[in-house]
Amino acid sequence: MRALLGAFGDPGHAFPIIALGRALAARGHEVTIQTWTRWQTDVEAEGLRFAPAPEYRVFPSGTESLDFYEAVARSTVDTLPLLREFRPDVVVADILTLAPALAAEIERVPCATLVPHIYPPGEPDFPIYSLGARMPRTAVGRAFWRRAQAPVAKGLELGRTQLNNTRATLGLEPLNHVHGGISRELAIVGTFPQLEYPRVWPANTHVVGPLMWEPPTDDVELPPGDEPLVLIAPSTAQDAEHRLLRAALRGLADAPVRVFATWNRRLPSRPLPVPENARLVEWLSYSRTMPHCDVVLCHAGHGTLARALASGCAVVAAPAVGDMNENAARVDWAGAGVRLPRRFVYPRSVRIAVERALSEPSIRMRARDLAAWADSHDPGDTAATLVERLGQQTGRLGRTA
Predict the structure, then answer these.
(1) CB of 99 within 8 A of CB of 79?
(2) How far is residue 386's CA from residue 390's CA, in Å, rounded to a whole number?
(3) Which DSSP category does 260 fall into?
(4) How many CB atoms sit inside 10 A of residue 240's CB?
(5) Which of 16, 122, 155, 275 has the most beta carbons within 10 angstroms of its beta carbon?
(6) pTM for this one?
(7) For the chain, how far is it from start to end, CA to CA, in angstroms?
(8) Calpha distance 304→234 (Å, rounded)
(9) What's the rounded Cα separation, in Å, for the pair 75 and 102?
C-alpha cells in the first residue's frame, strides 16, 4: 500500500505523524510524509520518503501574509502534483493540515484524520474545549455548559462557512456539518482513552493511544543520589521567559528531591538559578529520561504529557495556553497528576504541587496504571491497522502504478 501522510510542522503535530509513518513502513507499506523541511533528515532516517510541505506566513503583519483559509487553498493546489505523482492508496492528514485532505478528496483518494491529542468535539454538556474546565458533576453544571455552547456553535458555523468557501474555490461540494477538518471516513485519536470524558463515540472514530516519536539525541547523565527525581520539561513553543523553569528551580532548591531540568535549546535571556540539587541541560531524550523520574513538571503539551504518563510519572501540569489547559484538566480529572494554573506559577506553589504529586499514593498509582496500559498496547500498530482497513474497504489497497 502507498500512504501519504501530511502534518503541520510543529513537533506536536509532526512527531505523531512520523510515528504513524514508521508503523506503516514496518508493516511493509510505502510511506511518504509531507511536512516542513526542518524534519526532512529525521523522516528520511526512518526510511520514509520526504515531501516538502508548503510553508506560508499566516496572519502576521506584512503584505506577503495569508489568512488561514487562503493558505489552505494555495497549499491544496501545491499538494495536488504530489498526489498525482505518488498515487497513494490512502492519505492521512493531521487535524490542522487540511491541504492533503482536500487534495485527496479532489483526487478521490480515501482520507483519514490523525488527531494527535484529546478529541476536540464535545458533547452538549461538556465544558468548552481548551478552557481547562472539569467535567460537570451535577445537573446544574451540565445545564450551564449547554447554555455556554451557543457562542461556540456560532464560531463553528463561521468556520464551516469559511471552509465551504475554500472548498468552492477548489471545485468541491459544501459540507453540511461542522468540524469539517475531521474525516468522516476515519478519525484516529492519538491519546490515552483514560484522558477522554465518557461519551458515545462516532463509529469512524478510534482512540488508539498516544503516537510518540522523538528525534535521536545523546544520553545525558542523571543527577546523582537516591532522592525522588523531578524532571522540569517546559514547552518548546511557549513561555519564552522561562517562568516555569525559574519558579521550579527556586521552589525546589532546598526540597528533598533531585531536579533535572532542560531549557530545550531556547537560550534564556538572563541566567537561570541552578541550585545544588539540580542539573540543567540544553536538551535531553524524554523517552530515555522519564522512565527514571518520579514527577514530571511541564506545561501540559500533549506530547510531553503522554510521554510522562507512559513512563509512569506523576505529572504537575502548569498550562501556558490553548489546549494545554484542556490537557491539564484531563490529567487532573484522571487522577494522574496535579494541575497548577498559570497564575499560580511561583516558587512556593510549584513546590507544594510537586510535594502533593509525590506524597499522594493515588496519584502515583494512577500514573503507573496508565503506564501499564501503554505497555500492553501499541498505538502505532493499531492506527496502521485502521489505515489498512480504510484502504481495503475502498478497494484500493495494493493498487499498482
Answers:
(1) yes
(2) 6
(3) E
(4) 10
(5) 16
(6) 0.94
(7) 11
(8) 9
(9) 10
Pair 95, 121: CB distance under 8 Å: no
Which residues is 31 bridged to in the sheet?
3
Could you tell me if 97 and 79 are in contact, meaning their C-beta atoms sit under 8 angstroms apart? no
Angle, CA 40 vertex, CA 35 and CA 280 arms, to 5°: 100
Q: Give CA–CA dist 27/41, Å, rounded.
A: 22
How far is it between the farthest Cα atoms of the chain?
65
Q: What is the DSSP code (8-state) at residue 176?
A: S
Q: Following DSSP, what letter does each residue of 206-220 receive, concatenated? A: EE-------------
Please enumerate in sequence order all residues whose Cβ is within 8 A of that of 67, keeping only pairs 6 or more positions apart, or say none. 58, 59
**Per-residue pLDDT reduced to its tens digit, 140-178:** 999 999 999 999 999 999 999 999 999 999 999 999 999
> CA 1, CA 317: separation in Å to the nearest integer?
40
Decide if 120 contacts 205 (C-beta within 8 A): no
- Per the CB < 8 A criterion, the answer to whether 108 and 306 are in contact is no
Residues 6+ apart with CB under 8 A from 154: none
DSSP H or E run through 34? strand 30-35
Each residue's pLDDT tens digit, 325-384: 999 999 999 999 999 999 999 999 999 999 999 999 999 999 999 999 999 999 999 999
> What are the C-alpha distances in Å from 377 to residues 92, 191, 209, 313, 381?
21, 12, 8, 18, 9
Pick the closest to residue 93 from 7, 186, 11 (CA basis).
Answer: 7
> Which residue has 510524509 as its cell numbers?
33
